[in-house]
Structures are given as C-alpha cells and as structure tokens.
Amino acid sequence: MTTILQQNAYTPQSIEAKWQATWQAAKLHAIDTANPEPSGETFYCLSMFPYPSGRLHMGHVRNYTLGDVVSRIKRMQGYTVLQPMGWDSFGLPAENAAIQRNIAPEAWTLENIAYMRGQLQRLGFAYDWSREVLTCQDDYYRWTQWLFLYLYQRGLAYKKEAPVNWCPIDQTVLANEQVIDGKCWRDGALVEKKRLSQWFFKTTAYADQLLDNLETLSGWPERVKTMQARWIDRSLGTEVKFDIADSDFAIDVYTTRADTLMGVTYLALAPEHPLVAHVTRPEHLAAVESYQQEAKNKSELDRTAEGREKTGVPLGSYAKHPISGKLIPIWVADYVLADYGTGAVMAVAAHDERDFEFAKKYNLPIIEVISAPANCDSGDQSSLSNDKPGAYTDKGILINSGDFDGLDSDAAKEQITQFLTARQLGQAKVQYRLRDWLVSRQRFWGAPIPIVYCEKCGTVAVPESELPVKLPSAHDVDFQAKGKSPLASCDAFVNTVCPNCEGPATRETDTMDTFVCSSWYYLRFVDPHNTSQPFDPALIARWLPVDQYIGGIEHAILHLMYARFFMMALADGGLTGCKENQEPFKQLLTQGMVLKDGAKMSKSKGNVVDPDEILKTYGADTARFFILSDSPPQADFDWKDSGVEGCFRFLQRVWRVVSDARSLVNLSAPAPSILDDTLTGNQKDLLRMTHQTIAGISRDIEGKTSASEPDLNASFQFNTVVSKLRELVNFMSKHAIQSEPGSQENIDSSCPVYSFAVSSLLKLLAPLCPHISEELWHRLGGSGFIHEQAWPVADPAALVAEHATVVVQINGKLRDQFEVATDTPKEALEATARLLPKIAGLLEKQTIVKTIVVPNKLVNFVVKPI
Fold first, then answer.
1. Which of 182, 199, 684, 773 has its CA 20 to 30 A from that of 827?
2. What is the pLDDT of residues 807-849, one digit of tens each?
3. Cis peptide leading into 792, omega within 30 of 0?
C-alpha cells in the first residue's frame, strides 16, 4: 500500500522538471513572427524585462506570473501569442559591482543573467527564449546607437550646456524624472545642480502628441494617464519681455497670469540663470556669487519646499516695466528654478504667496491689481506697503491697472497679451512642465554615444557602417575617475579618426541613459535576429502595439513616457509600418507590490522571501497559484507563509480528486447537455456549476459581463479565479464516488458529467498551474499538450438555474429558507413562506406591516406586535 501511495503522490519538483524539458524540446512556445499568415489572431503579451541584479524577488514572480497566465489563456483561446523575455542589462549597479568586487561589469551581469534565467525557467514561464535579448551585447546596442543617430539626423538629439541634476554618490547626471523629492531615484542622495555639456533627446517636440494621445489609451489605468498628464503639464500663458535699463539685455518671463502684469514690483532670476553674470552691478557681485554657491549645494526640494523661508540678494540692476515704463529691481532668488519656465519670475507680491513672502521679508512694494468680484465697487484698494495679511491668488476684476481697469481676469489676459504682441514686448505662448530628456551618463557600463569630435569638422556622427561603437575592455578603464566617464581614461577608445576628413578626432565618452535601451526593446523582440536593421517595419505594423503590457507603477512617467516618445518619433520616419502606429502599448496593467507583515520586502527589514526556497519546498505551481490568490493584481499583495501552505494543500487535493477517478474519466467523451433528462439532480448541479465556473472565470479574466461591456478595472481578477476553482474542486470532492449506480446523493465519477468537470477543471487551472495540469491531462489519456486545447466555453442554457434558494426573514433577520423553481411569482413565494411551520409560528402574534419579496432570493416580513 505504501508503494502505491508513493507512486501516486503529488511530487511537484519531478513533475515540473519533466514538463519544462518536454516543452523546451517541443519548442512549444516559439513562434515565427515573420509568418505572413499566423494561425489565429496575433496577441503580443509583454512584461517589463528585469535588470539582472542577481536573483529574482517576489515582485518579479508576481509580475511574470501575471503575464504568463494571460499568455497561456490567449493561446488556448486561439491566438498566436508572442511572449518574449530579455534583460535590461546596462546600468550603474554593474559598474558599482566592478568597483567593489574587482570584477568586469560584463562578467557580473552575465553571471546574474544565467542564474535568473534558470529561475524563470523553473517557474515554467512560457517564453520564446529564441528571442532573448541582452541590451549590453553589441548586437543590441548597435541598434540603440543607430536609433540615436536616427534622432540626431532628425534634430531630435542635440548637445548643449545646461544645469543638470548631479548625484554626488553615483557621480553622474540624472534626468529630471530620476529625481524624486530632490533625491536620486536610486541611492537617495540629495541632488546637486551642475552646468555641463550634455546630450538631450527633444521629447518636448512631442509634448502635445504625448498629452493628446492619452485620450486614446482606453486600455491604460486612469492613474497612469493622470500622472503623465500632470508631468507634461501644458498651460497657455504669455511670454513677457522686460528690457534691462542701461543694457542691451532683456529678460523673458513666462506667466499664466498676464492679468497681474501691472502689479509686478520686482523680477527674480534663478541663481543659475545665464544673465545673472551679465547684469549684476560690480558692487553686488561678491554677494551674488556667494549666494549662487549656497544655492548650488541645495536640492530643488529644499529650494521650493512649502513654508521654507524665502531668500535672495539684489543684483543692483533694474528692468523696465513693458507697459508703465517704471524701473523694477532685479533679484536672484533660489525659489526660482532654472529649468522651469524661463528661469525668471515677474513677482506680483499681492497675488502670489511665494512672491508675497519674499516681498514681506525684504520690504518690497506690494501693489494690489486684482480685486475679488464682490469688492469690485469698493474703489482704489492699492497699497504700496507690505502690511497686507496675504496674497489674493484667485481671479477677479482689475484695479490699479490703467486702461485695463474694470476688466475681468480672463478678458484682461487676452487684451494685455494683444497689447504686448502689437509692440513686440510679448506674445502668447504654450508652456510645458515636460523637459527634454537628458541622456548623457558619466558611466562605463552603457551604450556609447556614436559621436566623434574633430577640430576641423566639429561634431560628426559615426557612419552606420562603423556601428557598433564597442565598449573597450573593462581592464583598460579607470573606474575610480570622478566627475567624468571612465571611458575618458581609455586612450585607445577616445582617440580615433574623423569619418569625414580622416584627421585625428576624439570620441564622445559619455554613455547613454539605460532608459534609452528599454525605450525600444519591445520592437526588437518582434525581429530579434535582424542584422540589416533594428526591425522590419512590416513586422512592427503587424504586431504592434503590444496587446498587453505589464509592469510596476513606478515606471508610469520614466519608462512609459520615453517608450511613447520613441514610438512617435519612429512613426514619423515610417519605421513602424504606418503613421498611425504611434503608441507602443494598447493595454497596460500596473501590478501592486509584494509585502510581508504589511511592509515592502527588503533585506534591511529582514522580510524577504526567497523564490528558490518556495520552489524547493512547494514547487512552481504552488508559488504561481499563491501569488495570484490573495488580491487583485492592481493591489498590493501581503505575503503569508500559511497561505503558501494552503495553496500547496489545494493542489494536493486536485491531484487526489483527479487521480482517484483516473480509470473512470474519459476526456474524449462528448460534453453532456443540461437538457439530457437521464441526468440525475446532482449530476445536473455539477454540470451547471462547471459551466458557471467557466463563465465566471472567463468574466473575471476579460473584465466583461457581455461582449459589449468591457471593464478594464475588472479584468485579470485572478484572486477570484482562484476562489472559483476552489469551489468547483470542493463540490467535486464532496459529491463524487468511485461507482455506485443509481445513487441520487452522489455523482458517479464514471459518468460523462464528471469527465466533463475534470476536463474543464484542468483546462481552467492550466494557465495558473501549468505543470500539474499537464501531468494530470496526460495521466488521463489526454491528447496533445493541455495548453494546445481550446479554452472552455460555457453553455448559456446551463447557466440558468432550475431551482432557487429563497431565504425568509422577519424584520431583516434570517429565520428559514426553502427551494422553489426559478422565477416563481412573488405571490407564490410569499404564500410558501407563510406556510413554513417555523415562520407561521413566529407570525402568529405579529401584525405584518409590509412584505418585501425579491424573486429567486428572499421574502422579508416587516412586523410589529399585535
């Protein structure tokens, strides 16, 4: 007996290794994207590829399980599914590892990839591994460089000196989006400002398109679209020109409140503004330079924090008011940022809180020019003192504004802008918060920028025939170099020949931001072995946009914005197959974090769960099933060890329920009909429940109550899928027996209904737990792989229940229940409820005030004592 039990026991490790090897040998998940006539409609499912940090964490497991389940379901629904995997393998951690461990970044990266690839494979993910790409290999970054040159030739890549975000720990430049609350997104260091000559991508050229296209992304979470819209932050305002007295210079200021122009009492420049050096009076120079140095050591968060005391120093120079001609003092103030607007502010102390605080501190004039509508008849309310209690920041009626008095704010904005435009002192202008993408990085482990500098020819693009510009050996660079790229220490890399004149030239030594590599990887996956171009536009037209993209909310602005910019720029050049193919991702799922004990998993908190331990103890199917079981994918998932054990026990139960009926189940038997009168009552109940489970799970996955009612927020509810599978197995386990002909209490497991239930259960379970499903399918004599079977479809007739359980309440409290035919009339339900002995006794000394009847559900008697 012991031997038989051991042979039939559920042993996930041996089963999973067996089927993973079998699927790989059969190339089950490999597809030919170039096939002009794929079998079935195409579906591209993509999860954000990982950085090879060393090993997977549970956040990875959740993300990739979600994508794999979607892919497997779509394949069973008849789609030709593309699900690739690769590695975002350039980046600073590898460079830091090289410094700390004295190991080449490439060796560290490839070692990590090998280990993590093995983990992904042990989890049974259905990736087409023939398409694997590594962004750090030159057969990939050759095309990253090609795309850089494509943008450069179209005027979308350029170099300029600009104030940049500088991480003092990583010793490198950060894009604006990589600065979070004034700190480096990676190491948390307070970010400093430096002026450096850097390469940029002109994302602002697509600002309107990036914003307007959000309306077309119906498959994206509203939260993500709102975050992007706020980051782009388009506003319509006025650019005003202030000439500087006794100078040929002028200061341009952007404002959305041109109606307050007559209330300007000073101008404030950012400490980094290039005009500061030109317009500071000699007697103020020392104080201004000292102030600039102080501001340089402050983060933007410190400089702009609400409630922080405002500081500044005067330049000693004055600007002319463009309408009144009055002289206005010019200050430098660190609450003004160089990369926001024009880096200059026209200060209207009466109507801006920051300007008001600054004016109060330095005893500058405060002139009220906007009156609240209710006070518009109260006469002249001007004040040249700073005794006012605070700034009035709403719209209103203009006062103290000369010819513009009496206009409301909206009319005044228009008329003042027209006045300035006619005199070439200003113009209407659209302004964006979005800034061009700074892509230069002072690192070794990144894609080299394919530019050379020649004294004779200037800046020269590397010809396509000379790509890739390869990284030198890590042994030939100095990783300890600070403030410049390690590449600058390698003479063999730096010194080259000009492609134009063949004279001596030097290479650009900055490398590209790693987000450049991930901004187009979804395109390369479609055509990964192309050696003549990054991808075939015809294939992109066929497969893009990605049907389902899955990744963390932390990429809502960084990666997702950059990927959209790339797609739009490539569409304009005809590289996406058609002009209309300009959005990379059709549907987006942003999964929540994996928590333990209510906190994000981290080594410092000591609450990390190692996926390898879960695989070793319980197997991949348990890990997959559990990570889907607790909450919707959009919500955070709280890890509980007891939950893992419960999921393992459930799979053991599935194994027993199916294995116990192994000799009696016939998977090839025709599906029984609910209209078959030979079926017993319990058999019909199981058949009905099986179809209800199919319909419910399909609805939970698709997010639809019907073909015309999709609901993105209700899709991929795998936690409720898990619940429905549990309910079906519980019913089968409770009612099935081996063989007892004629029994009305239980279901003979040799009957067609039970075979249909087992077949449906395995197909529904297969995307979540592919190994156990495959093993049981074959043990039952199923033909082909289970993932090649058609996804179950519910019979509408079986979804209609013959009987309903009606509960009976008295004053809302449950007292009894009874079974009736579905859709029994209200009158009959009330009459039946009254006749129930228990209910009749309770109503005997009560007066029925009202009776509430809900068909198929309840009868509630509202009573009071006689």
1. 684
2. 999 999 999 999 998 889 999 999 999 999 999 999 998 999 9
3. no
List, in order, residues 6 or more apart from 352 with CB less than 8 Å away: 257, 260, 391, 393
The DSSP string of 194-209 is: EEEEEEEE-GGGGHHH
At residue 381 the predicted structure's pLDDT band, cuts being 50, 70 and 90, is very low
Q: What number is the average pLDDT over the span 253-263?
A: 97
CA dihedral in degrees (215, 218, 222, 225; nearest 10)?
-50
Q: How far apart are CA 447 and CA 521, in angstroms?
A: 14
* Of 17 and 196, the one with more pLDDT: 17
| 597: phi then psi, degrees, rounded to nearest 5 | 60, 35
The whole-number average pLDDT for the span 230-244 is: 96
Average pLDDT in the chain: 90
From the number of C-beta atoms within 10 Å of its C-beta (0-12, 13-18, 19+), residue 668 rates as exposed
- 33 φ/ψ sector (left φ>0, alpha ψ -120 to 50, else beta): alpha
Distance between CA atoms of residues 374 and 209, nearest Å = 41
Question: Pick from 168, 335, 361: which is nearest to 268 by CA?
Answer: 335
Residue with tokens 């950059």: 562
DSSP secondary structure string for all residues of 619-640 = -HHHHHHHHTTSS-TTS-EEE-
Report the amino acid identity of residue 421: T
Phi-psi region of 683 (alpha: psi -120 to 50; beta: other; left: phi over 0): alpha
Q: Which residue has the higher pLDDT, 616 or 740?
A: 616
Phi, then psi, of 308 in degrees rounded to 5: -70, 140
**Dist. CA 831–CA 845, nearest whole Å:** 18
Question: Largest Cα–Cα distance of the chain, in whole Å?
Answer: 111
Question: Alpha helices of 249-314 — where are they, by DSSP H?
Answer: 276-279, 285-296, 300-304
Dihedral sign for Cα atoms in the order 158, 159, 164, 166: positive
For 862, list phi and psi in degrees, rounded to 5. -95, 115
**Residue written as tokens 């998993």?**
601
Report the SS3 class of residue 788: helix
- Tokens of residue 340, six digits: 């926001």
Two structure tokens written together for 719 = 């936690």
CA distance 830 to 126: 55
**Cα 853 from Cα 848, distance rounded (Å):** 13
pLDDT over 80 at 634, yes or no: yes
DSSP state of 258: G
Residue 654 and residue 672: Cα distance in Å, rounded?
A: 22
Round to whole Å and give the CA distance between 255 and 265: 15
Query: What integer pLDDT is reported at residue 741 of this predicted model?
Result: 45
Distance separating alpha carbons of residues 692 and 727, to the nearest angstrom = 11
379 pLDDT above the threshold of 60: no
**pLDDT at 37 (0 to 100):** 81
Name which of 703, 684, 698 is nearest 802 in CA terms: 684
Interval 2-13: pLDDT, tens: 333 344 789 999
In the predicted model, is pLDDT for residue 708 greater than 50? no
Q: Tokens 């008001």 — which residue?
A: 356
Which amino acid is it at 110?
L
Length of the chain: 866
- Judged on CB neighbours under 10 Å (0-12, 13-18, 19+), 663 is exposed
